[in-house]
From TrEMBL:
This is ABC transporter ATP-binding protein. Coiled coil: none annotated. InterPro entries: AAA+_ATPase, ABC_transporter-like_ATP-bd, ABC_transporter-like_CS, DrrA1/2-like_C, P-loop_NTPase. Residues 4-230 form the ABC transporter domain. Pfam families: ABC_tran, DrrA1-3_C. It comes from Virgibacillus siamensis. GO terms for molecular function: ATP binding. It comes from the Bacteria. SUPFAM superfamilies: P-loop containing nucleoside triphosphate hydrolases. Belongs to the ABC transporter superfamily. Keywords: ATP-binding, Nucleotide-binding, Transport.
Amino acid sequence: MSLLTVNELTKRYDDKLAVDHINIQFDPGKCVALIGPNGAGKTTTLRMLSGLIKPTSGKVSFEGMGQHDDIRRLIGYLPQYPIFHTWMTGKEFLIYVGRLAFLSKEEATKRTNELLKLVGLEDAVNKRIGKYSGGMKQRLGIAQAIIHHPKILMLDEPVASLDPIGRRDVLSLLETLKQEMTILFSTHILSDADEVSDELLLLHDGKIVESGSMDDLRQKYQTSEIELAFQDDPVTYQKTLEKLPSIGTCYLNKNMLFVTAENIQQARKEILTSAAREDWPLTSYSIKRTSLEDLFMKAVNN
Ligand SMILES: Nc1ncnc2c1ncn2[C@@H]1O[C@H](COP(=O)(O)OP(=O)(O)OP(=O)(O)O)[C@@H](O)[C@H]1O
């Protein structure tokens, strides 16, 4: 049974179809990345899933929840631009949020201490939030989002505005949290999604154009090319390469030869065997794989 099921979810703003009949199932314990360029519909999707805005049509159902139950107790949400009371300390802020989530004073204090440790802010408990770095604020934001032990944590572009250190800290924190809860986060940075997520949902113009693990996507869209440079004229070797059984195409570009093949390992073997046997004056040999960005473009244009 899926933890969360989304059926034909749609949001229209006047004449703009921001989210267009999407269907998703989230299994417990997964970390899912919602990927898409600006305006793809990521924020709108997350806001509908977390109950912050109403869909135009379609349905979001949570395992074991009735139609009139308040789903917000199952969800922790970190918006793209979280707002903090910057004059509070991290500890004061979390206790305040805990009280808003109906925890008793003792529970809120206990949970705050646990969370400050979990998100690595124990040394900054008494520092005002206004003095926190971007990465510290984001980690505090994650702590406030999970103060009530939600089953699903949803984060909107959690690392987009961070410097490399802040980004690293937040991605490592997500790695830790995914042991305990289901995570859905949006991003337009494919390498971040690749790093921490188990599954990807590719959103484009409000539609899910592809889904699966990064390995699934690589298998489906990634192609490899072997790039060869020679001391002398590469055309001399092109004919031999074209005759090798596993080579698909072989073309010349900027005085280098580019070879495509379905089975790149076999092609490599055949090329290097010919090169050794015929003593080719090879100056470089490398395998180039489709970048993550190209992979996304291929999926979108599929
Ligand atoms: N309140 C609104 N009123 C009208 N149009 C909106 C509203 N919110 C979003 N949109 C439009 O809906 C589309 C999807 O927006 P959304 O913010 O969900 O995309 P996104 O993928 O989160 O983009 P970004 O990465 O830029 O935040 C965009 O074309 C946006 O202009």
